[in-house]
From TrEMBL:
It is a multi-pass membrane protein. The chain crosses the membrane at residues 21-41, 179-200, 221-254, 274-297. The keyword Electron transport does not apply. It is found in: Cell membrane. InterPro entries: ABC3_permease_C, FtsX, FtsX_actino, FtsX_ECD. Keywords: Cell cycle, Cell division, Cell membrane, Membrane, Transmembrane, Transmembrane helix. This is Cell division protein FtsX. Residues 184-301 form the ABC3 transporter permease C-terminal domain. GO terms for biological process: cell division. The keyword Cell division applies. Pfam families: FtsX, FtsX_ECD. It comes from Streptomyces olivoverticillatus. GO terms for cellular component: plasma membrane.
């Protein structure tokens, strides 16, 4: 097989179907960028789960004087020193508990100021309006119900709150966004495959005379098909290259230079995760159009 002939045929095919080839490149680029983004999103969620679940606490908020006047759970008044000691002793005896930390009202006010100091509400709060609480670290975060059932009805306890529930809502939202991206990716992939098949069909039809002559002089089916397959593979590889550019640009501009500066409570994935996905994107961009063209040629390349 002469490489020069194959390359010339690829050039002819790309020039004859320039508009459709451009459409293939764009659709492949978008679909593979969404595919790579979905993989990175899934890895980001896994990283966040590992990071935050390790820091999850169960908070037992105690009744204060303010709560005694307004909250039905604190009708017996603010938590006494004896109740606090008993709660701490009972927590430390439980096998599911890893550690117990008591947070005073002053400490709670300080932490609130550090996290929400720019909020308009923060200016009107005073330390005596904050609640004392026990921050309970569990050996297994899924055992929250054990703590809740044991302490939610205790005198002096206003509410038992599991931070894992708040995180689950966040992770469910992120997973929903990931599934939506996968859905759009699948739709774009179907569009790309349809464009590839149609491009190959038009290219084969426009060169039916040449392929007929090649068939008459004894050229094999593979020899006739290889230029069409390589055209599709070349267009797909270009699209995959653009998808890689989009992924790298998204990591650099969106994640590293914007999100990381505005959201400092999230540990974002690094360049290693992004670079690890690029070979997969390139491989799919090369093989998917080539395979689609091969299947299409079996039907349309008949002379």
């Amino acid at each position: 097989m002469r490489a020069q002939f194959v390359l010339s045929e690829i050039g002819v095919g790309l020039r004859r179907n320039l508009t459709m080839t451009f459409a293939v490149i764009v659709s492949v680029a978008l679909s593979l960028a969404l595919f790579g983004g979905s993989l990175l999103m899934r890895e980001q969620v896994s990283t966040m789960k590992g990071y935050w679940y390790d820091k999850v606490n169960v908070s037992i908020f105690l009744c204060s004087k303010v709560d005694a006047e307004s909250d039905a759970s604190c009708t017996k008044g603010a938590a006494t020193d004896e109740q606090k000691k008993q709660i701490r002793a009972d927590l430390e005896k439980m096998p599911v508990v890893q550690s117990v930390q008591f947070e005073t009202a002053d400490e709670a006010f300080k932490h609130y100021k550090e996290q929400f100091g720019k909020s308009p509400i923060a200016a009107s709060l005073t330390p005596d309006q904050m609640q004392e609480s026990f921050r309970v670290k569990l050996k297994d975060p899924s055992k929250y119900a054990v703590i809740s059932s044991a302490f939610s009805q205790r005198p002096g306890v206003q509410v038992v709150q599991d931070q894992k529930t708040v995180l689950e809502n966040l992770f469910n939202l992120l997973n929903g966004m990931n599934y939506a991206a996968l859905g759009v990716m699948a739709l774009m992939l179907v569009v790309a495959l349809m464009l590839i098949v149609n491009t190959v069909r038009v290219s084969a039809f426009s060169r039916r005379r040449e392929t007929g002559i090649m068939r008459l002089v004894g050229a094999s089916s593979f020899y006739i098909q290889i230029p069409f397959i390589m055209e599709a593979a070349f267009a797909g590889l270009l699209g995959a290259g653009f998808a890689c550019v989009l992924l790298v640009g998204g990591q650099y501009f969106l994640v590293n230079n914007w999100l990381a500066h505005h959201i400092d409570v999230i540990q974002f994935i690094g360049w290693n995760a992004v670079l690890a996905k690029l070979p997969l994107v390139l491989a799919i961009g090369l093989l998917m159009p080539a395979l689609a063209a091969f299947v299409a040629l079996r039907k349309y390349l008949k002379v």
